[in-house]
Each structure stands twice: as C-alpha cells, then as structure tokens.
User: Fold this.
Amino acid sequence: MNRDKIAEMLDPILSQIEKRSAVADTFVDKETYRLYLTTFWANLVMDPEEAELTETDLETAHSVINGIANEILGESEAITESFRFIASRSGETAMNKAKLSKSHKDLLTYFSSMILDPDGHRKWMSELRDR
Assistant:
C-alpha cells in the first residue's frame, strides 16, 4: 500500500491520540501522548490486519507515525524515544499515574525491550525459554 493511503488510514487514530492527550486546546500532555503512541504502535505491530495493513506496510506506517508524532514531541524518532520514555523512571511514574493495568504495562515494557535493545531482548527471551 502506498504512503498516502497508509497516512489516510492512520490519520483518525493519530488524531484521536492527540485529542485524548490534550490538556487544553493548544497543549498536549507529552507523557500521555507517549503512552497512547506506544500502545498504538505495539497493537499495530501485533495485529496490522486490524488496521487493514499488512506486515510489509509496517515500515511505511512507522515512518508516517514518526512524522506526525515528531510535530508534537519534537523528536525525529518519536516512536523509539517514546519507548525510551516508557523504560525510564518517568515512564513508570506516568504508567502508574494513568492507572495502566499490569498486562498493559508489561506489554509496553516488553516492546521497549525489543525496540531499545534487540540483542539483549533475544538473550533475555532465550533465558526465559531455558527455564
């Protein structure tokens, strides 16, 4: 699928993320935005068909999402930086403040591990399988 079509398909979701993260008409709570963004990305990767995408569309979707999120967060690699936030103390505090369920926190932490340290993640998963 081409970039414009993917952008068109993702726009309503990304607009909702921005709207739900808004504190005032012109202010977006960046911590809340990051929680929504990482949740959206994790779900999109786990089931791209739910958004009418294919696995091969994910690279383009990643680029589209990064472009839009960059406008709000001011980070060119907004998805990666949002997962870096999730893995931080501030991210843990934000997840607790948002009252995310344990499984939701575990999902975001799991994806943070995969994205930020893929080699370490593979080693960790191998150790878990060996137990």
Observations:
- Residues 3-130 form one domain.
- The chain has a mean pLDDT of 92.
